[in-house]
Each structure stands twice: as C-alpha cells, then as structure tokens.
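Moderator note: this is an archived Q&A kept for reference. The question asked for a predicted structure of one protein chain; the sequence and the answer are reproduced below.
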Amino acid sequence: MWELVLLIDSLVHEFILIMRIKKEEFEPNFVGDYVIRIIDMTMEELKKVPSVIDKSFFYSENGDMEDNLFSSERLLIFKTIKEIKDLIVKHDTSIDKKKLTEAVNMIEKEAKLGLYNSLIMDAMLSFLEKEKSLKIEIAIFNKLKNKLGADACEGNK
C-alpha cells in the first residue's frame, strides 16, 4: 500500500518537474491524467516481461492451480474454526460457552459438507459475532466463507 502512495507522490513531483523544465503553466487537472497514463504504460510494459518466479513453483505439478487454492482456503477455514474454539475455552465470555461451542460445531459440520452459503452457517456466525472476543476470527472466517461459497457457486455453473 505504501509503495503505491510513494509511487503516486513521485509521479506528481515528476509531472511538476517536467512542467517547470518545459516552462509551461502547471495545470492541476492534468496531474491525475499524467499519473494514470504513466501507470498504464508501465503495466503494459510489465506484462511483456516474463515473471522471475513461475506460478508452478507455488503449486504442485499434479493438480490444477484452482483446486490447490480451494484446498488451501479450506485448510484455512478449519484452522480458523480451531482458533475460534480455542478462544472460547481461553476467554471469559458473556455468552454461555456451551452455546458458543455448539454454534462452532454446527459451523464446522456445515463446512465439512461444503455448505458455505447455508442459512445455518450464517445464523451461527451471527450468533458468534455477538461475542466480542471472537469478532476478529469471525471476520476472517466470513471472508474465507464468502470466497469459498463464491468458488463453489462458480464450480456448479
């Protein structure tokens, strides 16, 4: 993120310098156009340059890259479920631990079945979100769940 901010800042300064060297009037309206044009030209040139590390380096040779991504996201979702269970045990909760554990177990069951867009999972996540100590993990879980749910829907088409 900071790289992008610094890049845009340097392009704005470059634009100003070019305008001073050409002894032309500086028009703020053209700064944005200049920055976008330079970034577009750079991106087009970078598309022609071969990558230093091939994608196959990150994925196994015997499987499809998309399948491997899906599998790694599934592993992350089950890791997040385990972290949620650990947090329930470790922290004092305002909601009954037994109810929280039951909700996580139902989510885990739905995840094992691949039902990422189920109403049960959504309801249990809404219930778990009420517990403050679980908010971060639930947000991570929701992001993964939405990604896996979208991928599952695309796979059914």
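Archived answer notes: Residues 65-90 form the longest helix (26 residues).
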